[in-house]
Design goal:
Elements lengths: L2 H21 L13 H8 L8 E4 L5 H11 L3 H6 L1 E3 L5 E8 L8 E9 L2 E7 L6 H13 L25 H4 L5 E6 L6 E7 L2 E5 L13 E7 L2 E6 L6 H9 L1 H34 L2 H11 L8
Antiparallel strand pairs: 1-6, 2-5, 3-4, 5-9, 6-7, 7-10, 8-9
Length: 302
């Protein structure tokens, strides 16, 4: 709302209050008002959709991350695009009751923010390599420090008396980089959720049967400690630039800004050159002379 409209509404309310006090009448307060079709279309007929998103899976550092990246190879983009379903995370505020500050009053104060335990990702499984299954199975195998050694005398997971010794958390946790980006069809609004200290916690079973064929999907639950949200700067398109330059008011502002920038270039060049000569020769007089000349100023010798 513009400042003119706000001032106008304030003036109307002041006048109503004065007249009402003088005449002893009351004016109806602000309430529901009829809405035009254009107002409804502009405010309600462009909702966000659920089908425009992308994910980015981060791997842990060190040897485990290197093994996972080697397994993925050059299929990183295909791996990210195969994620067909996920969810935008949520959180809640844990509170405690405060009973003794005011007599007869119970307040609730927040003592921590609680995030969801996991975030779910569903991937289409490709027929060439079963890549999503292999990646997350290897990651969980490395977390459990499983051994598939076939050397005689060494323990491996096929032995009935095999026991597990888990890896240290910093070895298998990705500190940053697990991301979900939500955008719209025109790419003009984008949000990015980044999850801190993530690792796969669960791989759901995948039913197969002789019934009518369906797409094979793998569902993975990723654990994390918190998420952070940031708004992504959207690149300016050619259409936006064209609209900017064909709008007379915007074009005038652009020309003014460009003119100010161009007019400032000689002065900047003069200051840089003068400072450089002053440092090289030790003569502030000579540096000032060169700076004034390049900057377009009349050199007076002072």
């Amino acid at each position: 709302m513009s400042i003119v409209r706000r001032l106008g509404k304030t003036a109307v309310r002041t006048a109503q209050s004065y007249v009402g006090n003088q005449l002893g009448i009351s004016f109806p307060k602000d309430g529901p008002k009829p809405k035009g079709v254009s107002s409804i279309k502009s405010n309600l007929l462009r909702p966000a959709t659920t089908s425009h998103f992308e994910v980015e899976i981060a791997f842990p550092p060190g040897d485990i991350g290197m093994k996972l990246r080697n397994l993925m190879g050059t299929d990183q983009e295909k791996f990210y695009l195969s994620c067909c379903e996920t969810s935008l995370p949520g959180s809640n505020l844990a509170t405690m009751n405060i009973d003794n500050d005011y007599i007869g009053v119970t307040e609730k104060h927040v003592h921590r923010r609680v995030f969801d335990d996991v975030i779910e990702f569903v991937f289409y499984v490709d027929a060439e390599n079963y890549l999503p299954i292999k990646i997350f199975e290897m990651w969980m195998s490395e977390i459990a420090n499983e051994s598939s050694s076939r050397v005689p005398g060494q323990m491996n997971t096929k032995m009935p008396d095999y026991s597990y010794t888990m890896n240290y958390p910093d070895e298998y946790i990705a500190n940053q980089g697990l991301k979900v980006r939500k955008f719209e069809r025109d790419y003009k609004q984008q949000l990015e959720y980044e999850f801190i200290r993530s690792f796969p916690k669960n791989i759901s079973s995948m039913p197969v049967s002789y019934d009518s064929s369906d797409l094979l999907k793998v569902s993975v639950s990723m654990s994390y400690i918190r998420y952070v949200i940031k708004e992504i700067a959207v690149p300016v398109s050619f259409e936006d630039v064209f609209n900017l330059l064909t709008n007379p008011l915007q074009q005038a502002r652009f020309n003014q800004s460009l003119g100010n920038m161009v007019r400032g270039i000689p002065g900047l060049a003069g200051r840089v050159a003068g400072s450089a000569i002053n440092q090289e020769t030790g003569s502030s007089f000579l540096g000032g002379a060169v700076g004034n000349v390049l900057g377009g100023n009349l050199f007076t010798g002072r």
